[in-house]
Structures are given as C-alpha cells and as structure tokens.
Amino acid sequence: MDLVKVEEAIGMVIGHDLTKIVPGEFKGVAFKKGHIITESDIEELKNIGKNHIYAINLSNGLLHEDECALKIGQALVNKETGTYFDGPSEGKVNIKSNTKGLLKINLSSLDDINDIENIILSTLHCNTLVEKGDTVAGTKIIPLAIDEKYIKRIQEICINDKVIWVKPFEYQKVGIVITGTEVFQGRIKDKFEPVITNKLKQFPCEIIGTTFVPDDLHQITKAIEEFISKGVDIVITSGGMSVDADDVTPKAIKHCSTEVVSYGSPVLPGAMFMLAYSNHTSIIGLPACGMFNKATVFDLILPRIMAKDKITRKEINKLAHGGLCLKCEECKYPVCPFGK
C-alpha cells in the first residue's frame, strides 16, 4: 500500500476501514476496506480528518477483489455446469445450483486453483445431493487486490475442465422385490417397502411395481428378471442378504447380472449391501439394516444411481473413510460426518 494525498487517491483502493467520529452522536465506519475512491469521496474524507490515506494503486496490473471474484465466477460457471453465481459482495461470489441434482467436483482442478497464490475456492463435498438454489461453493481472493496473471491461471484451468457442476437427476423406472418367506406367508408385516418408497420420493422416478417372494432362488430370480424385461432402470431387492442358509438373494442377483460390482460394502450400517448391473439396469441388494437405521449405505449410493453414475468397486471401497455411522441419539443426516 502507498501513502498518498486523498486528492491523488481517486481510483485507488482503501487499504483498511476508515472511522468517522462525531462526538456524542456517532462512531463507526465511514469507508470500508476495499472501497474504490471516487472524486465525490474527497470532501467526506477530509471531513473525517483524512488528508492522507494508505491505498492500493490498481493501475499497475492489479485487480480489485470484487473484479477478481466476478472473473472467477464467470470462469467457473457456464451453460454446461448447471450452476450460477451471485455477487460479488465484499469480495466474494457464491456458486449456486441451478437445478436439483448431484454435485460434482473435479478434485484435481480444485487443488490446482487453491494452489494459486492468494486465491481460495471452497466447496461442498463431491456427490452431495443439492436442491435448486443451494450454495455449493464460494470463492474470493485473500488481499484487496492481486495481479491479473493469477486470475488468468484460473481461467486456463476452467477452459480445460469443468471444476464444479451439478448433474441433474434423471427420470427412472423402479421395480421393488421384497424377499422373505415369513413376509410372503403373512407371518410378519413387511417394513421394507415403505422405507424404500419414502427414500425414492425425493427423486424423479416411478415405481412400476412391488413383488413379494419367499426365500427361493428361482422365484427371486424370476421377479428380478420380470422387472428387467419390463424395461426398468433400477431393481431394488430387500432382505435375504446375509450368509444364513435361507438367504439366497445375492445368488439371485448374481444370476441376473452381467456385472457384479460388489457384494459387501465398507460402510456400517450396510456391510451386506450388494450392487450389480444387468447391462444398463442397476440391481441393488439391501440388507436388513435399511429398515432400522435412518442413514445407511443405501443413502450414500442411491443419489448417484439416480444421477445415472456408473459406480465402480473402487468407489464403494472409498466409502470406508467416513463410512462409520455414529448412530447419534438425534440423527441429523446428511448434516453429519457419515459418508463424507
């Protein structure tokens, strides 16, 4: 910052808050840090006793924090990102979702941007379910002004890759297969179907049917295959996922699949979870924990399937880090560490 006469400070940036004091009446900020001085400010500066100030000269290739934030926002947002930004305000812009969907973050590009001196970009976690209008990221520069070359580096990163975007959920048809001889025979009341349908309500999908079958390999296989033949996008099976002698659902899923991604997940609750594909149809095997816990591995995987992500075994394995539910007395998922 330079020490300059106020008359020579027009177009420069105030380097710190300037206080106005009227004895017995007022004491507060007259000019905020970051304010760009105009000719009309000169008399008021003198009125508060400021004939000289510390200011930043923007004529030397420096950009003001608001202009920097604006340029960063413009670099991060385009018609393909499903986002928009508001601001700048106090040197910051917020990136917001333009649709309901799954937030995607290019973590490598995010690291590259934050590695640029004096610039920060903060985001929500990748694969967070977001609503339209949700703030998904915020960005600003640290000082009041920086060299334009740093902003150009961000623009170059964003030209080559999307850094932040929202993948909209797609309309999908769902078939539900409830397994369990005790349920099929009416010995106990099924509790799985209402849990599944309630979780599906937040997505643009249609449940085309629910089939109840006993713990019989042939009948479970037939029920899954019938839904696949009807062109469903997702088949959700519940129950019969353990290693008990009567639990044959995993065998049925395997029989119907062209690819088994994983039988078992490093998530608690949800260890006996299964995910497979029959060509383009997702087949999900839900263990019994889904009936009794508000948040399970199903809640971590379902949004991705609804966005038509192709999930790999490696991605399921990565859920181990943060995959332990604390089973809090009052569950506040997803505002908690589970799945993060």
TrEMBL record:
Keyword Membrane: no
InterPro entries associated with the record: MoaB/Mog-like_dom_sf (IPR036425), MoaB/Mog_dom (IPR001453), MoeA-like (IPR038987)
Reaction(s) this enzyme catalyzes, per UniProt: adenylyl-molybdopterin + molybdate = Mo-molybdopterin + AMP + H(+)
Cofactor list: Mg(2+)
One Pfam family recorded for the sequence: MoCF_biosynth
Record-listed E.C. numbers: 2.10.1.1
Keyword terms, alphabetized: Magnesium, Metal-binding, Molybdenum, Molybdenum cofactor biosynthesis, Transferase
MoaB/Mog domain location: 175-307
Entry keyword annotation includes Metal-binding: yes
Involved pathway(s): Cofactor biosynthesis; molybdopterin biosynthesis
Class in the EC hierarchy, top level: transferase
Recorded family membership: Belongs to the MoeA family.
Purpose: Catalyzes the insertion of molybdate into adenylated molybdopterin with the concomitant release of AMP.
Entries under PANTHER family matching the protein: MOLYBDOPTERIN BIOSYNTHESIS PROTEIN, MOLYBDOPTERIN MOLYBDENUMTRANSFERASE
Protein name: Molybdopterin molybdenumtransferase
